Amino acid sequence: MMVAIETLRTPWLETYAPGSVHDALIADDGSVRPRWLPLLDQLGQLGRDTLVQRADEVQHLLHENGVTYNLPNDEAGSRRQWWLDPLPLVIAPQEWQQLEQGLRQRSRLMAALLKDIYGPRRMLAEGVLPADALYANSAFLLPCDQLLAEEDPGLLLHGVDLTRDAQGHWRVLADRVQSPSGVGFALENRIAMARALPDLYRRAPLKRLAGFLSAQHHSLSSLSRLNFDHPTIALLAPGPGHDSHFEHAYLANYLNLALVEGSDLVVRDSRVWIRTLGGLQPVDVLLRHIGDAWSDPLELRGDSLIGVPGLLEAIRAGGVGVANPPGVGALEHPLIGAHLPALCKRLLGETLQIEGMERHWCGQPEGLAWAMAGFETLSFQRLDGEPGPVSPADMNEEAASRLRQAIVAQPDRYVAQQPLVAATAPFFSRDCAELSPLPFNVRCFTQAVFDTDYRFSGYDVMPGGVAWHGAPGSAMRSSQCVKDVWVTAEEPQPHVSRLRRSRQPLVVTRDGADLPSRVADSLFWVGRYGERLEGRSRLLREALYRLLEQGQEGQADDTLEDLLHLLELDTSSPGELPVERFVMHRDRLMGLFHETQDGSLPMMVSRMVNNCRAVRDHLGDDAWRVFNQLRQEAVRLPNAGIDQGRRSVETVITQLAAFFGLCNETMPHHFGWRFMDIGRFLERALATLTLLRLALIDSRHAGEALWDVVLTTTDNATAYRRRYRSELHPAAILDLLLFDEANPRSVGYMFKRLERQIERLPQPSNTPYRSDEARLLIKARSALHLADLELLAKLEDDEDAKQALADLLDALTVPLEALSLAIEHSHFSHVEAPRQLIPMQTP
């Protein structure tokens, strides 16, 4: 039943004025479409101010979970957060049923075409598909010919970009088959909506998304040809710098897949193996999220640094199943899209249910004639990889004339298409708290499904997707606003758990030996950079406190000079006048708030971010939220003044403690956690030794003020006062921070902890002898245990004691520095980043 706007009492429609095109909310007669009525009623009860608050809460949830699209070419920053519209795009059950049928048909068509072009190529032989669609198609990869087995469905995952035209008909804009992104974003969007707008979500009878994801694991398992019951499945990703890295980590975690990069994998005996701390482990199925041509540098692009050499040979031999298989990107070519209606009739014996934009290849006489007749109103896509499409309507007369001449001269290089006039859907504007009709795109997803005997049984469609504002065909990543897609049901839907019930007996494992060496390396450096950041923050906090205490008219603080030295800043004379000293010290310290300065806090955070992103699937959700808060605090530092900067440094210290505390509480204490712990305490021990050397030996201003700094920056001032009251003595400080193995901030405790963790690491060989790491720690601990404590107790007034302490600190520092190299050599050396030594010719 349609309801006229006049009879619907809601302020949301007072300013909503769709144009002459089809609108998702308002029908042609001015009435509200029935599927939107419950939603508008709920919005009316919320009110504008409340919806703005809920919209902000949605963004906060996405931000906490790190939902971002990486933008490597964005000068303002390499990552941009989603803006998720709190108003979803609603699709009615009857409409969805028709759309679902059309999407299933399209996936069946693409799968059949994929098998044909890399098999018998009957469509070429029969003239249904022109030869240029393959042999002038750079995405058609001849090494992938005959790659698919007969029982392989070919296309496992399929993304389809759609929009509505001005009359309201769904139109396909593009097929995404190489590595369709968006499934993880759609699920995270839905979760954020359910938490921020629980009443709205609970009262809407929506089709659930979790079932689609749960079935995906079974579909991937069905691709294994060697191990159906408990296959090892890995998600092959380009790495943290990719624009969809959040989704790669999210899906790997959700589906319980190993998140790997090309450098983690090796092909031996026609099988793919993961390099792990426990040795090589076989991979049965790869969910591929890297481009086709980059997948195998041995047979495809020789300059690829993210692929797996020998992958195609492993696929041919049946050693690994891959979704989607390399070479599938040929289906995305515009020339194939122009011939899909004819291909559908020939391959499936059916009429294409969801048409795309009207397209014609100019390489055929009738296509060229159509293009020339409507030249001014069409757009043209070059087929040689140049960006496009381009429209004569957007050109001056001279440029349009050159385009026409180029098409006539080489018509086989162009596809002409009729641009779409897009329909609109309501989008919420936070600034004015109103709804506006805007053009939109939608990405839907299908996947191959298999029965309990792992036989292919067709395609399933995810009941939802991702919508975004933009002209037809605009990229999702460039949109300013995205939407959740709600497919309503006739009746309430049962809850679907995010966890899957195992169909087979489960093999319980606890040792964590399947950790990829690259991940262990990144976790080690998460620990080192995190501890380095904390130590530098503590020193900077103390320096800022002393600078503010000194003020512009105060006397010079010699301890401040020592702090500048520890922070690796210039300690040359800033001037004789107090104000000159203050300004120079302030500027030097404030430089540590800018990422461009070496050793600054934002630079440390950036390095920690890079390593954390590489191990996102190994960190708990709460720890990740705290880490995102830490990252945002670092973003604010460059614009902070000295007072705000000091408060931000306090926040950084607290958030680091929360992050590592949550990691200790939530990460299994297996190899990954151990490497992070080793990195932390190795870095802390080195920093403590440096601090003790300055305070007790090297400083020209040694004394109570500097000793107090040592206790404060190591957070041991309270422990010292409780033990020794207010009397400061270097021997007591030395005992507390060097020898006391019960004090977590003492070097003795750190050595003991490092030794315990290193003893539990996997041994790279079966030798009965101690590892290099263990021997180095024994050497350091022995030096500590054999120190002459009676001589060191005379430190304050005995030069021999000072020399003995200097020798002891050297004896502790040298093995620690060698320890880091030994760990890298034993456990990480085989995961060095590959380098291209000579230029390669690429297809």
UniProtKB/TrEMBL annotation:
Residue span, DUF403 domain: 515-828
InterPro entries (alphabetical): ATP-dep_Glu-Cys_Ligase-2, CP_ATPgrasp_2, DUF403
Coiled-coil parts of chain: none
Signal sequence segment: none
Record domain Circularly permuted ATP-grasp type: where: 88-467
Name under which the protein is recorded: Uncharacterized protein
Naturally occurring in which organism (per UniProt): Salinicola socius
